[in-house]
Amino acid sequence: MASYAYLFKYIIIGDTGVGKSCLLLQFTDNRFQPAHDLTIGVEFGARIVNVGNKRIKLQIWDTAGQESFRSITRSYYRGAAGALLVYDITRRETFDHLATWLEDARKYSNANITIMLIGNKCDLENKRAVSREEGEAFARENGLFFIETSAKTAANVEEAFVNTAADIHDKIQVGVLDVTNESSGIKLGPTQAGMASLSSGSVDSRRGCC
Amino acid sequence: MVAPPLPHYSPFPERTRSRVPIRRPRHRAGRFVKRRHRQCYTCATQESTFTRRKNSLALTPNQSITSLVDYRAIQRRACQPTQGFETNLLRRVLWPLVSFQGLLHVTTWPVPTHADETVLRLDIGRTHFPLNPHQQSQLETLLAGVLRRHPWLHYYQGLNDVCTVFLLVLGEKLALGVCERVLLLYFRDFMSRDFHHVHTFLGCIYSLIQAEDTALYQRIIEVELPPYFATSWLLTWFSHDIAKVDLIYRLFDYFLTRHPLMSVYFSAALVLGQSGALMHLEPEFPSWHKFLLDAPGQLTMVELQGLIVASEKLWKRYPPEKHFARGFHPYSCVSTYPKINTVNTALQYGVPIDLDFIFIPLDSLSPPNVQSSPSITTELSAADDPKVSQPLQHPLDLAVNARDLQTTWPSDEKGLVASPGIHSLWVATMDRLKQYVVHNHRNWPQVSNQTFVAVAVYTVAFLVVWFQSTSGH
To answer: Which residues, other chains included, contact B6 with Cβ-Cβ below 8 Å and sequence gap of 6+?
Structure first.
């Protein structure tokens, strides 16, 4: 049960109250809390997903959204392979702040980090303040993936996490990301040798000697 | 049809009832009155004899009514493994007292609205203990009230949980004064522009762990665990983490009677208490982080009392004036917390306690960035009192700018850019702390008193002999 091929580290960032913790809760526990506690500092969740034929463990760091906490949350950027940048489609200002969040993410994280832009609360269509096209345009300009989700109805939540994992996995296959480098946010899992079809020979030899 | 017998009714209370001993509600506050006044106090507070014995308190004209208070007895009660102040009735008496209500001189710069009120409004519905809509509006009034009186304070998420506790115990009216003083006395370091000073507090936890349990500290270094699991512990005094409200009240009894650093000692005691379980965890920092995050939620009252005793022991073993001798800013709440003698004098004579920080930096303020935007300046000139509308800076922020503490505090930015990961960030935090924390006293050769006296005696004797021999020549 505990065996997995890779472990990816994620970080969830975005303004306060956009639903970061609710997304994580929906993804890990399949439930929704309408009045979720504030996140103070950094919290943590984990789940195993399947990408292709591989089991991948996602280790997700959920951060506080308020600006004062940035000096604390910044230190979690660097070890992350994927970042979920969340805004609230019903609050315009959370979309306007995306640029600063992205700047932070680019500054403090790995160069090869996969960033998924998430417009959350898409169930509140009648209160929408940011159109889908605007989100897509921002993502296109900055080279991000884009998806609209609802932590309440669980729409697209699974996809947001899994699509990010799929992209990271592709990067490993292509060789953009180095599995042996711990700071890339990827680790090899304690999988049995038969289950994992490891692409890189050097990794195999390393496993052999350990 | 026979009507059922009417119940016996008498306009007079039943006789039998008087035989049952009625337990008068004991005035529990009496135990915190100084012994020599206690007899008079209990007489004076009993309802029937109140008018007759009112004058028996016999205070001299220059004595304050608060001089009856035995502050040390209150502290003892809170620091010992007891239920603390037990009831909320008593807390309503003692919390204002221990937060020096009426004794702490507070200067205010009232403003119409505070910049952080928009964030604050979002957080009102997201407290750890769910509030009803009426309480939510009370909490908003309370928090906004404090912030508007002190525009230099910044709101951070977690303050809503702290203020909720005060609101639940004290009610709206009492809570305002107490919250204001508690935020000024205990939380103002965290209410500066960023969390620069939170890192100091977090580092202190590790410093205590290092001094107390080297094996655990070594393991923490191996696991590369940053101290951020304790962020909410310090920022909210555990009111965000502990599940039961009774335990939080008990813990607040403790923290309110003690030094601002006590939450650091308590956190260290909590981690040290879990060392056995931590050592058996897999050496991965996420699991350690999660384990420690969940630890306060599972505490029981007995364990909490044990931790209070443990943190008192830590305090005695590593007193902050020695262990953290140089770690804190001159305007930090740690540096300006009133000493027990000051408190006693204030209680005795009703002399207000002055916190220097309130006066020194703010009076010499030149408002920053006012001229940068023309729209703001026009608004400012329209205002009646220029002082009201000027953005005030937190004394800790201001002093960092003015005194340029760069020599002792390397800036966050530089440290972060140079560091390749969490580990090095955390090492940088520790290094930074090491520059401050003077724990050399442990490394010095341990010299017993006898040795010291012996050396002193021999030195004096030698000097006498030498002096005599030289004067003889």
So the answer is: none
Best-predicted range by mean pLDDT (A106-110, A144-148, B7-11): A144-148
H helices present in B350-383, as ranges: 356-363, 374-382
Q: Which of A29-43, B111-125, B251-265 has the highest mean pLDDT?
A: B251-265
Whether residue B240 and residue A72 make contact (CB cut-off 8 A), yes or no, is: no
Q: How confident is the model at residue A151 (pLDDT cuts 50, 70, 90)?
A: very high
Nearest to B125 by CA among A35, A25, A32, A19: A35
Domains of chain A, by residue range, sit at 6-207
Question: Measured between alpha carbons, how far is A124 from B421 in angstroms, rounded to an integer?
Answer: 39
pLDDT at B450: 72
Contacts of B126 in chain A (CB under 8 A): 17, 35-38
For residue A117, what are the CA distances in angstroms to A64, A132, A148, A160? 17, 12, 8, 9
| Residues in chain B closer than 8 A to A38 (CB atoms) | 123, 126, 128, 157-158, 160-161, 240
Tokens (6 digits) for A140: 């296109």
Instruction: Output the pLDDT for position B379.
Output: 36
Cβ neighbors of B130 (< 8 A, separation 6 or more) are A35
Interchain CB contact of A40 with B (< 8 Å)? yes
Mean pLDDT for A172-183 is 81
Closest C-alpha among B101, B249, B259, B253 to residue B181 = B101
Return the closest-CA partner of residue B150 out of B119, B118, B176: B176
Structure tokens at A41: 């500092």
The neighbour count for residue B50, using CB atoms within 10 Å, is: 11
CB contact under 8 A, B122 and A17: yes
Other CB atoms closer than 10 Å to residue B316's CB: what's the count?
8
CATH domain A6-207 topology: Rossmann fold (3.40.50)
Closest listed residue to residue B176, CA positions, set B162, B166, B184: B166
Determine the Cα–Cα distance for residues B327 and B118; give it in Å rounded to an integer: 34
The model scores a pTM over 0.90: no
The pLDDT confidence band at residue B261, using thresholds 50, 70 and 90, is: very high
Please say if the pLDDT value at position B106 is more than 50: yes
Count of Cβ atoms closer than 10 Å to residue B404 Cβ:
10
Could you give the CA distance from residue A71 to residue B196 in angstroms, rounded to a whole number? Answer: 8
ipTM associated with this complex: 0.86
User: Has residue B369 got a pLDDT over 60?
Assistant: no
